From TrEMBL, chain A:
This is DNA polymerase III subunit delta'. Its EC number is 2.7.7.7. Gene3D superfamilies: P-loop containing nucleotide triphosphate hydrolases (3.40.50.300). NCBIfam families: holB. It comes from Aromatoleum tolulyticum. InterPro entries: DNA_pol_HolB, DNA_pol_III_delta_C, DNA_Rep/Repair_Clamp_Loader, P-loop_NTPase. The lineage of its organism: Bacteria, Pseudomonadati, Pseudomonadota, Betaproteobacteria, Rhodocyclales. One of its GO terms (molecular function) is DNA binding. Pfam families: DNA_pol3_delta2, DNApol3-delta_C.
From TrEMBL, chain B:
Forms a ring-shaped head-to-tail homodimer around DNA. Keywords: Cytoplasm, DNA replication, DNA-binding, DNA-directed DNA polymerase, Nucleotidyltransferase, Transferase. Residues 248-367 form the DNA polymerase III beta sliding clamp C-terminal domain. Its main location: cytoplasm. Residues 132-245 form the DNA polymerase III beta sliding clamp central domain. Residues 4-120 form the DNA polymerase III beta sliding clamp N-terminal domain. One of its GO terms (biological process) is DNA strand elongation involved in DNA replication. This is Beta sliding clamp. Confers DNA tethering and processivity to DNA polymerases and other proteins. Acts as a clamp, forming a ring around DNA (a reaction catalyzed by the clamp-loading complex) which diffuses in an ATP-independent manner freely and bidirectionally along dsDNA. Initially characterized for its ability to contact the catalytic subunit of DNA polymerase III (Pol III), a complex, multichain enzyme responsible for most of the replicative synthesis in bacteria; Pol III exhibits 3'-5' exonuclease proofreading activity. One of its GO terms (molecular function) is 3'-5' exonuclease activity. The keyword Hydrolase does not apply. SMART domains: POL3Bc. The keyword Cytoplasm applies. It comes from Aromatoleum tolulyticum.
Length: 352, 368
């Protein structure tokens, strides 16, 4: 299935036919479906009789093997942490995962590339065509990337490499220059508006919260995060009247609640939401518009009235600093208290 | 539905011949299964580790409709091993469960659909085919297989070069320090075809081929090679790479020739090897008029020395070798007499068999 905002790209890829280069790099923000596109292309490349629209047929022997997860020539190279059955590459926002499952590596290890080299040193299984999907490509350190580079430089016959990255600046320039780059940006409003009418579409406020990334919003909706989002908005909007320390305590237990765990909702996401909330506040204060919480513009406007430019930008910078350490908080409660105190100071401080 | 009634051994033996390659852990979980296929009055078993695929047929009474299914290979093997060897075994398939019944025992195993099992496509179209006795092929493999590299980053060295050319079959293996070459005659003429067999395939063939005159049929296609012998069909992928030009490695025109008895030299080297350095395993050979002195020392300054009388009358020579490389060639050849040619202490030596040029072994000296 190709998402409507990727339909043109898909047509161009299919149109390349046999002129498809041996290494492609899909870049663009999380939540656009870059990995889905790579998987759909991989399926097409392995299928023995693709349909007219370019999609894999779904019935031939290679398709059957692929659909049961047993195609020996489809070689996904993903971090161990992403290899779990249901997750597929991009997760909501850069923070994504909560604190659970820490032990599994979020990096692509050099051993994975060495195993790949070994696998590719012998001929293919169904034919000489093999498809290697590397996602996210930025999860390789320099050693690992250099090992992959050797393969990109001298690709074994029939191999096609599909690299996916949301942070292409973190890739080795040599890797980038070996790949044909395909960039994706936020889909046009009318395409998304059409999609929002469809059956699987997420609520519009979730789409705004993810900065207009449709699949990121869909993942939030599917994980049951919209209820969490409503609670977040209610709590943070009420804060100027409440006690930041008390709220920090409530949120700490909230993060450990069943609903939060079930939705994969953790500290990184909560911090991201707080930051986006403050971003909207600052943006409005500076004469811009509300971007992430369009449904709450009234509340945010009221809060903006109470704060000063200096206080809100200061708060924004402090949160940005905190966010950088969010993957390794010393203590969740202290971190929440710290953020909420700073936020409360910005919105309840004297207006100048 | 009844699949098969047979004795334990009649099912266990073919299962073992395919299940040997099944790996315990694999990225594709279905590969720990064996594919059982009933077609007419034949029941075939098939297993693969992705690089190699082995298929064989079983004996016994085979009934029911045509069907195919996959089941955990090791579990089935363990169950059969634990049953009495001559007892009757009944295998049935019902409701996606494979049941093995023997006496009062009954085992019901989970299955996975055969359609999900990645089978190799057999080559069709252009291929080079020849037939050779199992014994001859197995012996030729043994003459060179020990010289293959193991886990070398030059992955084409982790295999064996097989060349069918005219009426000759050549095999070459090298790890960069020594090279073994062996050739044997073919009955019918074939177009020149070269492939590199993966190490694991070579080991599996060495394990499964019989020391008999029974034929081995070999089909060399672009992407894979098929070996058929007895009831077994082994399909192997090939290493994709360029093997070094072995002819340039084999030296010509040696000045010094030493002819010796294989068995006494092997015994001597095995004794001297005890006190070699664990890592480099170097032995020093000093060749003089009618004598060969072999010596070793290890890191603890312990020493071993032995002297052999040999038929040699050339200039004296002092040369060092990795003793493992010498033991390998002496263990894997079977002739009584061996010829050894040298130039000087810094250039490679050549081991051959007297009176034929079907075997060559080149070994680099080492500085002791
Ligand atoms: Zn298909």
């Amino acid at each position: 299935m190709i998402h409507p905002w990727l339909a043109d790209t898909w047509q161009r890829l299919v149109g390349l036919g046999g002129r498809l280069p041996h290494a492609l790099l899909f870049v663009g923000p999380e939540g656009l479906g870059k990995r889905d596109l790579a998987d759909t292309l991989a399926a097409r490349l392995l299928c023995s009789a693709p349909a007219v629209d370019g999609h894999a047929c779904g019935h031939c022997v290679p398709c059957q093997l692929r659909l049961s997860g047993n195609h020996p020539d489809l070689l996904p190279i993903v971090p161990e942490a992403d290899a779990a059955p249901e997750s597929e590459g991009g997760e909501g926002g850069e923070g994504g995962e909560g604190g659970s499952g820490k032990k599994k590596s979020s990096q692509i290890r050099i051993e994975q590339i060495r195993d790949l080299q070994e696998t590719l040193s012998v001929t293919g299984h169904q034919s000489s065509r093999r498809v290697i999907v590397v996602d996210p490509a930025e999860a390789m350190n320099a050693f690992t990337a250099n090992a992959l580079l050797k393969l990109l430089e001298e690709p074994p016959e029939g191999c096609i490499f599909l690299l996916v990255s949301s942070a292409p600046r973190r890739l080795l320039p040599t890797i980038r220059s070996r790949c044909q780059q395909w960039s994706f940006s936020r889909p046009a409003d009318d395409v998304v508006a059409q999609w929002l009418l469809g059956p699987d579409a997420p609520p519009a406020d979730l789409l705004a919260l993810t900065g207009g990334m449709p699949l990121a919003a869909q993942r939030l909706a599917k994980s049951g995060s919209d209820a969490l989002l409503r609670r977040f908005v209610k709590d943070i909007a009420a804060l100027p009247a409440g006690d930041p320390l008390k709220l920090a305590g409530q949120w700490e237990s909230w993060l450990k609640s069943k609903e939060a765990l079930a939705a994969g909702f953790g500290m990184p996401q909560l911090v991201e939401w707080i930051q986006r909330w403050v971003t909207d506040l600052a943006s409005l204060r500076l004469g811009g518009r509300v971007r992430f919480f369009p449904g709450e513009d009234g509340v945010i406007a009221a809060l903006a009235q109470r704060t000063s430019v200096a206080a809100v930008t200061n708060c924004y910078n402090e949160l940005a600093r905190i966010r950088r350490v969010v993957q390794h908080p010393l203590n969740a409660r202290l971190m929440l208290e710290d953020m909420l105190l700073r936020y409360a100071r910005a919105v309840t401080g004297t207006r100048r | 539905m009844l699949l098969l009634t047979t004795t334990r051994d009649a099912l266990l033996a073919p299962l073992q011949s395919v299940a040997g390659i099944v790996e315990k852990r694999h990225t594709l979980p279905i590969l720990s299964n064996v594919l059982i296929e009933k077609h007419g009055d034949q029941l075939t078993l098939l297993a693969t580790d992705i690089e190699i695929q082995i298929r064989t047929t079983t004996g016994g009474h085979i009934g029911g409709e045509d069907t195919s299914i996959t089941v955990a290979a090791k579990k089935l093997q363990d169950i059969l091993r634990a049953l009495p060897s001559e007892g009757e075994v009944v295998v049935t398939l019902d409701d996606k469960r494979l049941t093995v019944k023997a006496g009062r025992s009954r085992f019901a195993l989970q299955t996975l659909p055969a359609a999900d099992y990645p089978r190799m496509n057999l080559p069709d179209g252009d291929a080079t085919r020849f037939s050779i006795s199992q014994k001859s092929f197995k012996r030729q493999l043994a003459q060179v297989a020990y010289a293959m590299a193991q886990q070398d980053i030059r992955y084409y060295l982790n295999g064996l070069l097989l060349i069918a050319d005219g009426k000759e079959l050549r095999m070459v293996a090298t790890d960069g320090h020594r090279l073994a070459f062996a050739s044997s005659p073919l009955e019918a003429e074939v177009p020149r075809t070269e492939v590199i067999l993966p190490r694991k395939t070579v080991m599996e063939l060495a394990r499964q081929l019989a020391d008999s005159e029974d034929p081995l049929e070999v089909v060399l296609a672009g992407n894979q090679v098929v070996f058929r012998f007895g009831p077994i069909e082994l399909v192997s992928k090939l290493i994709d790479g360029k093997f070094p030009d072995y002819e340039r490695v084999i030296p010509q025109n040696h000045q010094k020739l030493l002819t010796f008895e294989r068995t006494p030299l092997l015994a001597t080297l095995s004794r001297v090897a005890i006190l070699t350095n664990d890592k480099f395993r170097g032995v020093r050979l000093v060749l003089g008029d009618g004598t060969l002195k072999i010596a070793s020392t290890n890191a603890e300054q312990e020493e071993a020395q032995e002297e052999l009388e040999v038929d040699y009358h050339g200039d004296p020579l002092d040369i060092g070798f990795n003793v493992t490389y010498l033991l390998d060639v002496l263990t894997n050849t079977h002739e009584d007499q061996i010829e050894w040619r040298f130039n000087d202490g810094n250039s490679s030596a050549l081991v051959t068999l007297p009176g034929n040029d079907r075997f060559k072994y080149v070994v680099m000296p080492m500085r002791i």
